[in-house]
Amino acid sequence: MSTLFDILASAGLWAAVLRIATPLILGTLGALLSERAGVLHLGIEGIMTFGAMIGWLAVYHGADLWTGFLVAALAGAAFGLLHALLTVSLGLSQHVAGLGVTLFAASFAYYVFRMLVPVAGTPPTIVPFQPLDIPGLTAIPFFGPAFFAQTAPTYLAILLAIALGYLLKRTPLGLAIRMTGENPHAAEAQGINPVAVRYGAVIAGSALMGMAGAFLTLSAFNSFFPTMVQGRGWICIALVVFASWRPGRALLGALLFAFFDGVQLRLQPALNGIVPYQLFLMIPYLMSIVALAVMARRARVPQALMQPYRRGER
Amino acid sequence: MRFERRDHRPLALVIATSVLAVIAALALSGILIALAGAPVLEAYRRILIGAFGSRLSTTETLTRTAPLMLTGLAAAVAFRARLWNIGAEGQLYLGAITVAAASSHLLGGLPSAVQIPLLLLLGAMAGMVLLLVPLWLRLRFQVDEVVTTLILNFVALLFVSMLIDTVLKDPTAFGWPQSQSVADAAMLPKLLARSRLHIGILVAAALAILIHLVQSRTVFGLQSRAAGLNPAGAVFAGVPLGATLVKVACLSGGLAGLAGAIEVMGVKGYVTTDLSPGYGYSGIVVAMLAGLNPLGVVLAALFSAIMFVGADGMSRALRIPSYIADVTVALSLLTMLVALFFTQYRIRR
């Protein structure tokens, strides 16, 4: 019990929580935006993998870190265009199309990486984002190192969550997105072009997914290796349901999730030899399933989610 | 220009669709091969040599086809009923570890004729159980099974990793996490001497035919198709939706579990965490390429196996990353989806 208290009282835990949460926040926002317009986006896992690879590769070849981030976002957007073509224009099964995008983006990422980076004993590294020193805040005892010693993309992710919440709830564009997700026919009757809205939401959401991946290689770690995304994309899809399709709750959900992940990571060494470490690693996955079971019924699903929209066809 | 739905799809069109999709995928990955600076046609030739160039490579390709057929069937039967089982990878691993545990601890002394069928059944049941959990969550809490089956893949792999690190660890494996081996009597008979080719491919082919008959000739086949085409309509017509989905899940999870069982009993003899190079995920592509037709799965699985085995040889010869096989297989899923669209619709001006 005292170990648990020590863990909770350490600034390192809280700093880790924000770090673990960042890719989840970005990914969940991306999936949420797409789903709010009515398109399930299971391409997320592959897009995160590709974003992690291409962002890292850009920096490895001399680009600065923010350019790497931008490259990852643009690559994500390109895969988003592919997903939108398949699901919006052709109206194909969103489940299967998304899985196809994931399989393609992930294997393509490995292919490009292997082609351009020769096999080496230790993977090549870059200099990642460094924690920002915020005058006045970082120096506060405990709270400084716990909450104000993050890298810039973490703060960006939190700002984006707030911005997306505002966009969806308070702006005409947000209304158009929500309407398209609820009832594209009604949206069209209001002069909104549901096809354009869906394209925009899927592409912008995919850019966020690419950034989520890039955070892993440009801030959380400093190198890329296959399978590094480890199902984070699927967890984001679960978090969207848990958040009931609201950006504010997505932020909280990702933080809550990261909190448990951070605690289990720190409990592992304490209980080493007593409890197999794999049991701890299962916790995040099992938690997301439990979260789904608890929230699935209560959540307000966008009514037109997974329904292709074709003019004049119901 | 507008799209108009076709009422009827001739069989020749369906077959042509798959062939066209594969050709398109090969053409697209040809671009990637060219970008890597290798001669494209030579690369394709090397893939064929890698897959069929010698007795060894041919038997390797066929050995790889067996699990892909089973995971392909697992996806095909589930998708037909709109049960999105993306968890074949995890079900495969659970089937594999169950077989390893049962044979090394319980049934190892039994003669082959008893032990092999028993182990195959146990492996299949393990896969079933892992799929029944997400199905229960869907029926009870309306949780989308795509996400839960995907996430359970990671849980299953960690579970296997834990077992082969602790209670099922092989003490003679020099510290490598590897499960204890199944008994010699549990190993599947070989089809060809001096090769790894075992009877698993025959089991899988027989199951493909059997499933084809079940789907086309039985009430359950009709019910599972109805559940997929129009769940509400199916219920209205008196189809017991929940019971049908449970049966479909048992079949689908069972097939994936069986894939793991035969991979252990046919090839390796033990379980490691790299037992499957993504057979579960490739099974989804195989099923889609086959148009969810069980007999088509046989051919689609062969195509995937050719790509994977052939690309290994090609990558050594031309220094192209062997990931090109994964890219081509993934691309063939996307091209197949697009091709399917054009068989369902015709373009009218």
From TrEMBL, chain A:
GO cellular component labels: plasma membrane
Transmembrane segments: 12-32, 39-59, 65-88, 95-113, 147-168, 199-218, 279-296
GO MF, one annotated term: transmembrane transporter activity
Main location: membrane
Pfam hit, one: BPD_transp_2
Keywords: Cell membrane, Membrane, Transmembrane, Transmembrane helix
Species, as recorded: Xaviernesmea rhizosphaerae
Membrane topology: Multi-pass membrane protein
Highest taxon listed in the record's lineage: Bacteria
Protein name in UniProt: ABC transporter permease
Compartments, record wording: Cell membrane
From TrEMBL, chain B:
Superkingdom of origin: Bacteria
Principal subcellular localisation of the protein: membrane
Membrane disposition: Multi-pass membrane protein
GO CC aspect terms: plasma membrane
Subcellular location, record wording: Cell membrane
Spans traversing the lipid bilayer: 12-41, 61-79, 91-110, 116-137, 146-164, 197-214, 279-311, 323-343
GO MF annotation, one: transmembrane transporter activity
CDD domains cross-referenced by the UniProt entry: TM_PBP1_transp_TpRbsC_like
Record keywords, A-Z: Cell membrane, Membrane, Transmembrane, Transmembrane helix
Protein name per the record: ABC transporter permease
